[in-house]
Amino acid sequence: MMYWGTGMGAWTMAFMTLGNLLFWALVIVGIVMLVRRFDRRTPPNHATRSGPDSGPLAHQILDERFARGEIDEDEYVRRRRMLDGQPTADPSRQ
């Protein structure tokens, strides 16, 4: 009697292939989650910060209000200068 093949059918090979793909997908997702968790560029509670170091959020809100047309250009410039710590009085207007 001759022995042909490994004894594995097509379904066994398909399950092994899918299992291998699933394993590597989980490994990659795990690595991405770890990198995001330990990424130091943005603090985890960036959107909920308040106080003197909350500048980017205030600038973002001001930009959005200007884009929606809630404030005009003069008001935008005045408030932007105030957030940046620059004098708000415009000497050319006096």
Folded structure, characterized:
The chain has 94 residues and is mainly α. It has a domain at 11-38 and 54-88. It contains three helices and no strands. Helix 2 packs antiparallel against helix 3 (73-84). The longest helix has 28 residues, at 10-37. The termini are far apart. The model has no long low-confidence stretch (mean pLDDT 79).
Provide a short characterization of the protein structure.
With 94 residues, this protein is mostly helical. The protein contains 3 helices and no strands.
Which ranges are low-confidence, i.e. pLDDT below 50, for 5 or more consecutive residues?
none
Query: What is the CA–CA distance across the termini?
Result: 106 Å
Instruction: Give me the number of helical elements.
Output: 3
Largest sheet: none
Mass-distribution shape: rod-shaped
- Output the helix-strand order: HHH
Helix percentage: 55-70%
What is the SS-derived class?
A: mainly alpha
**Rounded mean pLDDT score:** 79
- Count all strands and give the number: 0
Based on CA atoms alone, the radius of gyration comes out at 29 Å
How much of the polypeptide forms β-strand, as a percent range?
Answer: under 5%
Key structural traits:
mainly alpha, 94 residues, rod-shaped
